[in-house]
Every structure is written in structure tokens, then in C-alpha cells.
Amino acid sequence: MNYPKVFIIILNYNGKDVVSRCLSSVFKLNYPNFEVVFVDNNSTDGSLEAARRNFSKANFIKNEENLGFGAGNNIGFRFALERKADFVLALNYDTEVDADFLTKLIAVANQDEKIGILSPVIFDGRTKQVWFSGGEIDWFRMISRNLKNVPANEFWESDFITGCSMLIRAEVCKKIGLFDEDYFLYWEDADFSLRAKKAGFKTVVVSASWVDHFEKSETHNRSNKIYWLVLSGLIFFKKNTPAWLRPWMGAYFMARRAKNWLDVKFRKTELALVVQKAYRDYKII
To answer: Coil, strand or helix: which one is 177?
Structure first.
């Protein structure tokens, strides 16, 4: 088997309670040719200092501010590509990986140079249910879905690959660039996947490669998550909706805003106010 050089990019922001588990599992990988790049988005909880003490084999980069997911990962991608990486792997800091997950991904990548982005099957680390086995974009409803069914195939194609665990062939970055930094958080992975597919690359999920995801955003500041999901989703569909669907997108957007106005006026829930702020900030952008 060919073992191309992989740089694993772990972007951290105040992940002290989860990042040690991630790094411990990564340094137990049975893949023989990888380096870890730990990029810190100006954490304040001591997680960077703890990682430096306990995982000194990693490369460490500290950003002077929280750059968000796309821009933060791009720092690590540039570091890797300058050092002749064959692949870069964006890996969430709240994951735990199987020892052979990277070997299984590379085995599939070696089969076809047009396979540009690969994902493992990702499980919810708490429930052990499938969290991601592929992604589907619903253009009419302006949403995306994480699929949960695992086909009986070695690998299969997906509308997009989640940034939770995204192995990217270096040639993809050289051809289409890096994550779009117009997205601070969420949807940059779907945008990147679409650009890769338009450039002729395949985006696939590999059945034998497994990762557990202990999704921190589900238990920390849900309002912040909803805000960025809505705002980044609006940016995504503005950038990527096919021309023939744009009239529908405009009408659907207005209907969603009207519903939100009614929710704010009559229900006044925290969620409605968060969504309203996202709509207002989208207009400013």
C-alpha cells in the first residue's frame, strides 16, 4: 500500500474538556506517515497550554484572535501544503478516531485520483448512532441533511462532506483554493465540497473508516449555533443556488422572513430573536 504524507489539522477553540481525548486517539493511529498541526483560535481556557505539555509531537500554531472555522483551518492547510502534504485532514477537536480510520480512507483514495474528499462514517459518541454517513442538500427548502443510513458498499458519493472529518487531496486545494472565509462557522464544508465537485473531483464516504463525534456545540451555547447556521446557510444559498432556482429562493427567503417576523411578534422566544438577528446581519453582509 502507498502511504502518502497526511497533515492532520485540529482546530481548537476552548476545547479543554474534549481535545485531549482527540489528540490521544490521533497519536495512536496505525498510519505510518502523518503529522499533526494543532491550530488554536486564541483560546482562553488553557487548552492550548495543556496540549503543548502533553502532545509535544504536534506542530502548534496560535492565532491572535478567533478566526472562525474556515479561516482557522486555512492557517493549518497552508502550513501543510507549504510542506508538500499529499493530503490534509480537517478533524474536529471533539472527535475520537479509530486507530485504522486514516489507513482505511487512504486505501480508498489510492484507488482513484479523482476521489478528492473523503469522510469516515461518523457516529454520535454518546448514543453510538450514526451521525453522518453522507450529506444531502435540499435546494428547495434551503437546508442540508446529515444522512444516517450506511449502504453495503466500500464507499459511496455524497452531496457534501462534513468538516467534522474531511480528508482532502492536496490537488483539490491547488485547483479550487481553501475554505471560503466569508463563512465564519458552518456551511463552509458544503461550499468547499460543491466547488470540488464542479472541478471534477468526487466526494465520498468510506464504510470501514469510523470516528466518534462528541458534538460540543449541542451542549454549549445553542443560540450561537443557531445564529451561525442560519446566517451561513443564507450566504451558502446566495453563492451556490443554480440560476434556474433563484426566483424560488428569493420567494422562499421572503416567506421565511415573514414567518420569523410573526414568531418574534407573537411568541417572542429566544430562538426567534436569534434567527431575526441572523436575517438582519445577512442583509448587512
So the answer is: coil
Per the structure block, which three cell numbers stand in for 136? 444531502
Cβ partners under 8 Å of residue 243, min gap 6: none
User: Which of 13, 2, 73 shows the shortest CA–CA distance to 37?
Assistant: 73
Q: What percent of the chain has pLDDT over 90?
A: 93
- Its domain, for residue 257, covers 222-284
Sign of CA dihedral 229, 231, 233, 235: negative
160/277 same-domain check: no
Say what the pLDDT of residue 267 is.
84
**pTM for the full predicted model:** 0.95
User: Mean pLDDT for the chain?
Assistant: 95
* CA angle, 90 then 279 then 237, to 5°: 50
**45-93: pLDDT as tens digits:** 999 999 999 999 999 999 999 999 999 999 999 999 999 999 999 999 9
The number of domains in the chain is 2
| Same domain flag for 254 and 197 | no
Alpha-helical (H) ranges within the chain are 19-26, 47-54, 68-82, 101-109, 170-176, 188-198, 222-240, 246-262, 270-284
Do residues 88 and 174 lie in contact, with contact meaning Cβ atoms separated by under 8 Å? no
